[in-house]
Amino acid sequence: RASTFFSRELVFKMGPHNVDKPALSVGYGEDVFKGAIADKYLKANGLKLADLEDYSWIKDSAKPDKIAKAILSWALDRGATNFCHWFQPMTSTFRHGDTGQVQMSMLEFNRDGSTTFELKGKNILFGETDGSSYPNGGMRATHTAGGYLAIDPSSPVFLRDDCIFIPACFVSYNGKALDEKTPLHRAHQSMSKQGARLFKHMGMEITGMVNNIGLEQELFFIPREAYERRMDLQFTGRTVLGRMPARGQEGCDHYMAPIHVDGPALACMKEIQEQCYKLGIPLKTRHREVAPNQYEFAPEFGSVITQTDQNLVVMQICEEVATKHGLVALLQEKPFAGVNGSGKHNNWSISTLCGAQLLNPGDLTAKSGNAEIFPVVMAAIVAAVDEYGDLMRMSIASPGNDFRLGAMEAPPSVISTYLGTQMTAYLKDFMEGNVYEYKPVTTPVDLGVDILPVVQAPCEDRNRTSPFPYGGHRFEFRAVGSSQNVSLVNTVLNAATAKYFAVISERIEAGETAVAVAQDLLKKHSKVVFNGNGYDPTWPDEADKLGINHIDSGVEAINTIVAPKNVAMFKEMGVFDEEECAARREILLEAYVGTIEMEVGCMIDMITQYAVPSAKAAGIDSAAMAEGVTQLKVALAGIHGAADTYESAKLCRILRLETMINVRTIVDNVEAECPANLWSYATYKELLFLDSGKFK
């Protein structure tokens, strides 16, 4: 159906608009308990919005019951009669929505047969569930299964259908983090405290810092009818077989092209935005991406905790709404060979709680009165990227990224940072003792036409080949996979930054100046700054000579989480202990192995049950395909016989990037020869050209 939220008809019905005066828009945020929506219900229970926004209410003796009652009234007015704690199990790659929940009725059944609705403070503050049946890396077992939920007051309660969702952290009986959210909170808290400590040394008293992010969510929309004729897409999210058609993305004709006004993709995207707006998710941008049937959504910046939660909701909404429009939303990083895959660019910045932007030199200097703070912050981040680039690579080691990184569509697996010529020259001057305020210079671009305005180009060009470029007021971690929960990504970024804020503070406390420490860090770590072309085939070898973190294998990258220096950093910053690091290593490796096992199983079944019968019907020799199946089965048996999960994962990577590709080539060549009416699973021609009609 066409979207009615903020439709032209609705906008007209809202009457005259005062564009200079903020106003509540009809429906926006009505399904999230915050702001003006929450204030109405809080006042009815003797509270005000400030009580909800002061997170200490969770420790008050009376406020939790009052807030619960306000939430209940709001929920019933919106038609919701159930509630749940909404949490994020570790690496839940194939779980719909990537979250966990147990929905419980708020209806109380009285002894006299009557019923009442009830929600108490204790119901929203805490919950308990089984911790052993989720990925836990050995931290839980059937005989030690306790898992406990605690409300996250910084992320607002929201409502979908007849249930309210209470964002929560999930820990074991012994306090070990069993989720993605708890470590992110720990790392964010550490960054905030260490940042305040550093700024105090530099003459700026602040109460803390906040990490803000903006996530660019790429995905594919494909016809559901064709999807339902692809076992691999249904089970794994990517095609393990399939021949490229005559047309792909050669003409660059899909990127930011018009979205068909009467097509299902636009109708689907409108409804996704509609549902997000009701949840207070400011999904501002929608456009086509590079590959056929590939699109992108992007929201406004927000706090890392809320933005992470909202992105999980956005992905779930995309999957659910697509079904209503005869489509399927594919969030996996590389669903199709031969065309671009999907990422989720993680735009990352930090500000003080009083609003000074750490990565905006003009703003930071104006609000701090100290021009030396900005280069000190940059030195800390450069050092963090250099020393903990292996952890950055680990954080993006999703199975789908095997096929993206360095493939001329995503940054390489060398973890460097781009700062641009002006910033690099400034930091070089600073490092060499010439200390002055950084004032980036924009460049006027005259279009050569009198009636057209002069464009002010920013101080630096864009570098889309860098995994972590500075983009003016923010860094952009471009290598993140599209299906990922970005909690681990930002846990690493915040923890590593916190560590170097702490390093500088410790050296200041030992008698050095902040400037001297920052200059020393830049001398040691500026090798990680690379402003060139990350796609240049000579760059990885050059990076190796410089000692920059370069890990091609996602499996080996996962293993770095238990490197002694990384465990020590996480422990010092209060994020993970040894057991939690080891558990995450095991879980990430198990997820990798499980993914490849499913992909190989699909490939074997599709060849045996579909490709071979099609070839025989067409009179094409199928012996090579049968031999390929044998090779796959032998390789799979070797994986099952490996000594441990790490060895299994290494064998899986070889199987996936060598054997499976070789077998795929054989099958795809048979597809090229087989008459279209005899080929039994949906082809790329049917899957990839939503706007051009069906090809069979």
Write the layout of secondary structure elements.
Blueprint: H1 8-13, H2 35-43, H3 49-53, H4 63-77, E1 82-86, E2 104-105, E3 107-109, E4 115-117, H5 121-125, E5 126-130, E6 146-151, E7 158-160, E8 163-172, H6 181-201, E9 209-223, H7 224-227, H8 231-236, H9 264-278, E10 283-288, E11 294-299, E12 302-303, H10 304-324, E13 327-330, E14 344-352, H11 361-368, H12 373-387, H13 389-395, E15 417-418, H14 421-431, E16 443-445, E17 455-457, E18 468-469, E19 475-477, H15 487-509, H16 514-525, H17 539-546, H18 554-559, H19 564-572, H20 578-617, H21 623-640, H22 645-673, H23 684-688
Parallel strand pairs: 1-8, 15-18
Antiparallel strand pairs: 1-2, 3-4, 5-6, 6-8, 7-8, 9-11, 9-12, 9-13, 9-14, 10-11, 14-19, 16-17
Helix pairs in contact: 6-15, 9-10, 12-15, 12-16, 14-16, 20-21, 20-22, 21-22
Q: How many beta-strand runs?
A: 19
What characterizes the major β-sheet? 7 strands, antiparallel
Q: What oligomeric assembly is this protein in?
A: single chain
* Helical amount: 40-55%
Radius of gyration in whole Å, from Cα?
A: 27 Å
Total of DSSP H or I helical runs spanning 4+ residues: 23
Rounded to the nearest angstrom, the distance between the terminal CA atoms is: 27 Å
Which structural class is indicated by helix and strand composition? alpha+beta
Beta content comes to: 5-15%
Q: What average pLDDT do the residues reach?
A: 93
Poorly predicted runs of 5 or more residues: none
Shape designation: globular
